[in-house]
Predict the structure.
Amino acid sequence: MIKHQIEKGLTYTYSRVTTTNDAYASSNEGTLDYLVSTPSILLMMINASTEMLDSRLPSDFITVGKRIELNHEHPSLVGEVITLYLEVESVDLHTVLIRFEASDSKGSVCSGKYERTIINKNKLLDIAYHRAPGLI
């Protein structure tokens, strides 16, 4: 059993000003070029959950994403501050389930759940190398 400090109810807030790098690059003559993209919000969620969880693990362990459910409910313009609120909903052996909500100055943008797995860094690399023996 891994000794860590991740517990149900743990919360974390993550905020970032969005930039043009967060925009959806569309081929629709710039129609959506000023909207924050869903992939950008996903990346913010990955960064926020890593910051929240990995510092609470022994140094030879990390968390990695396993499954995500995201409901993108409202658009947000590039330049807005997106704030993510994360809460650990459950911890079961090597699995952490996080509930999250994202908002901007006008209110809710998206919400969902994110499942991450606690794993030894070296074991993760061993698994990856074993799956691709011809690439090493």
Remarks:
- The CA atoms of residues 102 and 124 lie 30 Å apart.
